[in-house]
Structures are given as C-alpha cells and as structure tokens.
Amino acid sequence: MDQNIKLICFDLNKTLIKENSWEILNLGLGISEAEDDIMLQWYREGIITYNKWQELIKDIYIKRGKASKKNIESILAHHTYCEGALELISYLSAKGYTIVLISSSIDIIVKIVASELNIKYSFSNNHFNFDENGYLVDIITEGDEKEIKAK
Hints:
This protein is α/β, with parallel strands linked by helices. It has 7 helices and 4 strands; from the N terminus they run E-H-H-H-H-H-E-H-E-E-H. The protein is about 45% helix and about 20% strand. A 4-stranded mixed beta sheet has the order 1-2-3-4. The protein is globular and about 50 Å long.
C-alpha cells in the first residue's frame, strides 16, 4: 500500500458497470430514447437545470405507471460489471485502501453495487422516495452532478 494514498474513489456508470444506469431505468420505465435524448440536450444546453431534469423524469415515470420500487429494483439489478472491476476492488481492499463509490446515479443501484463489491462507503446524488404502497413519489437530488461529485 502506498502510504500517501489513503482513499480511492470510483464512479459507477461505465466505470464499474458497463451500462448507464439512468439509461437502463429510463427505458425500463417507459421513457423513449428520443425523450431521453431531448431532456439530456436541454440540460446540456442550459435550457433546464439538473433539478428540473430530474423532476421531468420523475413525472414521466409516475405518469407511465411503472415506477414501483419492486420494478425499479428489478430493472437496476440487471447490470454487468466492467472487465476487471471486481478483481480491482478486491485487490485494492485487500491492500488496505479505503474504497468509495461516488455516483450521480440512483441510490438503489449504488447500494446494490456497493454491497456486491463490499464497498463500505458510497454516495449517490439521487434518492428515490416511495409511498407506503411502494410507488415512486419523489426523486431527491443533492444538486448538479458535476458540482456534487466534486463536493
């Protein structure tokens, strides 16, 4: 272990897992590729804020009627690890490094991956809240993904 390095942080999408979890979830919950692309374009062009983008996604999820916790967990459970990801995390952990998963993805998949890879510390920018019947009622975001990751 390099004594100068205490902490190693990993992102989730296309870093530890091959997929983009938002893309998988959006398609699974009824957002078309065209709708997904246009909202991303609006965000990138500054037409909408990150929070507004999340609000639009949430509203579509709810409107399309597929946003149950059970369905969301099922969709997000189908991820594929990047080649060598499991071995790398295991190796670094065995060497004594503190590993942290920091993602602007959804708390559900961040928790799943952190658990599967035995990563003790994790942070997700977006938290899904469900009602007593297990249906999505809100997406709480910590802020713009670029800023919150740096923080």
